[in-house]
Amino acid sequence: MMRSGKAPSTAGGPGRAPHKSLRSGCSWRGEGWVGTIDKGLCQLRGDELVSIEENQTPDRLDPRGDLLMVQGEKVAATSDGLKFRAWKLDRLSELWSQQPAPA
What we know:
By secondary structure, the protein is mainly β. The chain has one helix and eight strands. About 10% of the residues lie in helices and about 40% in strands. β1 and β2 form a beta hairpin.
């Protein structure tokens, strides 16, 4: 995602650590979102990654509707980028088994 016409810095800079741990990224609601190992879920602001939710380190991001994040044995979502909810895989399997079969 390039807002200013230049690529975001991944080399860091004075006082900033390099981001060598980028895992996923997408555009959601006109903003750049990036999953990293070291800073968790980040939002791209200018040419900086700002940590939004440090304990979310998504392997995949899906921006259709709510922002969905998949990591390991967990799926998480946010509808506003501020509040997050998450489900472990075993709980998702339980919920899925309760759904009626397609007609």
